[in-house]
Design brief:
Helices cover 24% and strands 21% of the residues. By secondary structure, it is of the alpha+beta class. Strand 1 and strand 2 form a beta hairpin.
Length: 114
Amino acid sequence: MATKTTLTWQEFLEAGKLDQRWEYVDGKVRLISPSGVQHGLMIQQISVATQSFVNANPEWMSLATDVAFTLAEGSWRCPDWSLVRRERFGESGLPEGPAPFPPDVAFEVISPSD
């Protein structure tokens, strides 16, 4: 018989493994598989393009794959790359954990397996 263990959200976060990617959607944790070379190359190209944009528009910041964003219904999503206006973080500055809002622009590279 399987044993179920109840964890608080904070306990779940603390139990996670380093470099493990996941999203929290509709109350369920979805582990994200490692990406392939083509996927990684596309993200690198997005990274270069968005960094050029940010260099010309310093009110924006470019954020990498591992950043979790909180959506309106409470889900957490981790787009492949994102852009956020700096002002959205307000007086409190950059949080240690997930952004408390969705990104202004999200980039998602769709894999054939998705």
